[in-house]
Write a structure and sequence with these properties.
The protein is an alpha/beta fold. The chain contains six helices and six strands. The strands form two sheets. A three-stranded mixed β-sheet has the order 1-2-3. It has a three-stranded mixed β-sheet with strand order 4-5-6.
Length: 146
């Protein structure tokens, strides 16, 4: 099963923010769109990614009342890992698990096309396993229709 199975079934909106934006602007976008991460982009160039976890980490360490004025560029993750549309979902899940990340930007032909979350991956794999289990039970019990 490939990543494109998720991309074909979910909202393809690409939520982005500028690296010069404030943390407050990032929080506003995350809550407005009910998402967990934003791609930090200038034009078509990905500069990084900022997640809820990044914001919480800086808030927990901050000694200043001006945490909301900190720039996205100061806390974003710059070593962005991407998933390609033809990547195997199990491999994508392993990358996310080993790197402790919950959001991966999607690329197709070198262009960023969206974002996939750990929830998307888990849900898709669970649905596939449930379908397979149902088919196996039907086969074993003789209810399998050819």
């Amino acid at each position: 099963m490939q990543v494109k199975m998720i991309a074909n079934t979910k909202d393809s909106a690409l939520y982005t923010i500028s690296k010069n934006s404030s943390i407050h602007e990032a929080i506003t976008k995350l809550t407005e769109f009910k998402i967990g991460a934003l791609l930090v982009m200038e034009g078509k160039t990905v500069d990084g990614i900022i997640s809820e976890r990044d914001i919480l980490n800086v808030c927990s360490r901050c000694q200043s009342d001006n945490v909301c004025s900190i720039k996205v560029s100061e806390i974003m993750t710059t070593n962005v890992v991407f998933a390609e549309m033809d990547d195997d979902l199990m491999e994508v899940m392993e990358v996310m698990r080993h790197r402790h990340i919950r959001h991966l930007p999607l690329r197709s032909n070198g262009e960023v096309t969206g974002m996939v979350s750990m929830r998307d991956v888990n849900s898709t794999l669970l649905d596939a396993m449930s379908d397979e289990n149902e088919q196996l039970v039907n086969y074993i019990t003789g209810r399998y229709v050819t």
